[in-house]
Amino acid sequence: MLLRPWASRSAAVVALEFDLLWLLALPLFFGLGWLAARHESAAGRVGQGELPAGYFRGLNFLLSEQPDRAIDAFIDVVRVDPETVELHFALGKLFRQRGENDRAIRVHQSLLDRTDLDLKAREQALFELGLDFLKAGLLDRADHAFGQLESGSWSEQALGHRLEIAELVRDWPLAISLASQLPVDGAGAGVSKRAIIHFHCELAAKALAAGDAASHALAGRHLSEALALGPDHPRVSLMQAELAMARGESEAALSAWEAMRARQPEWFVLGARAWLQTNQRLGRLPDALGSLEAQFESQRSIDLFLVLLEARLEQEGPQGAVEWGRAALGRAPSLVGLDRLLDIELGLADGPHRDELALTRGLLRAQAQRQSRYVCAHCGFKARQYSWQCPGCSRWESCAPQRAEELERV
Asked: Got the DSSP string for 239-301?
């Protein structure tokens, strides 16, 4: 059938020949693919063979967690072939990780001094140099290096580090400006709305400290900016109450506290003392004490206990405060609360009983002080006073408004 002239073939025969041709061609295509793969594999082996042996020794030392020997091997390679850009980057990072910031700076600076470096490698070298300066504590030079990366593939990460520097030096206007250029709550070097709220609150706190009417107006503007970003943020509510008190607007302050108390009772404890004192000045102390005691019964907060104990001490004297404190600790045991209660009892005791109380308090005090700290959930930093930004890791709101003793109950 295959020997017939083309003109006399039927459509069925042509279709059959077409299938046979495909069957013959398929093995040929597989063979060509196999040859191409072999060629590519051979080319890869030749490229690897051209790399200096020191490169592989250094890589092996890195995999074996021997960075010192890896650095020595890479330095040898760089001496032989100064054009190895990637090895310069590897060396610089190793130096920085080891704390040898001066050597890391020299490595990356030497790359920037090269005239043949392409734009992509130059941007990376500038970014790495900024990280070197940041690690070395040279914040102004780090900010300058990152500032030169306003565009390109490293721009967002550079902005993130500039924002980090602005927070470290507490330049809140610059922090707000930089944050506005970053994606909010996004990936990468994005910034959270929560952080921007705190930037405005920091500026408001600084203005409030000045104490004059113009500063109060400035504080109000910053709080309005923060309020637009987070209407229910506890710090904004607390600062609104503080600003109202600075202006002599007690009722407005109480309204701000009460709104937060209904919304976020766990944060209200940070303003409970000022709230109670304001009610006292307005002649509403009995009702306020009853309301705060009801909240203590449901919340069992150490801070609420301490506020109520001090109020009882002022209103009823030491004996009344001790009686209330013993009953309250019976319902909600607290080592921190007991430590303060023993202080008051010591003023009432005399003779051998006083010595026994002093001994008990001395044995408990060290542990009570440890339990009274605020703890960062991220880095574990412990502080006597509550801080919105952790002094250890600089994260915002990483410390809960409860003390260590309360957190251990959960």
From this structure: HHHHHHHHTT-HHHHHHHHHHHHHH-HHHHGGGHHHHHHHHHHTT-HHHHHHHHHHHHHHH--
Read off the tokens for 34.
């196999």
Closest CA to 278 of 234, 238, 232: 238
Establish if 356 belongs to a structural domain. yes
Residue 96 in 3-state DSSP?
helix
Residue range 328-372, pLDDT digits in tens: 999 999 999 999 999 999 888 887 788 888 888 888 888 888 899
Say which residues have a Cβ less than 8 Å from residue 143's Cβ, sequence separation at least 6: 162, 165
Angle at 303 between CA 297 and CA 307, to 5 degrees: 85
pLDDT at residue 118, as a whole number:
85
Co-location of 304 and 397 in the same domain: no
In a domain, 337, yes or no: yes
332 and 409 housed in the same domain:
no
CB atoms within 10 A of CB 26: 10
Residue 101's CATH number: 1.25.40.10
Q: What is the mean pLDDT of residues 75-88?
A: 61
Angle at 345 (CA atoms; ends 341, 349), nearest 5 degrees: 165
Amino acid in position 373: R
pTM: 0.75
Does the structure show a pLDDT above 50 at 5?
A: no
Distance of CA 35 to the CA centre of its chain: 54
Considering the domain architecture, whether residues 325 and 377 belong to the same structural domain is answered as no
- Into how many domains does the chain fold? 3
Task: Write phi, then psi, for 17 (nearest 5 degrees).
Answer: -65, -35
pLDDT band at 56 (very low <50, low <70, confident <90, very high): low
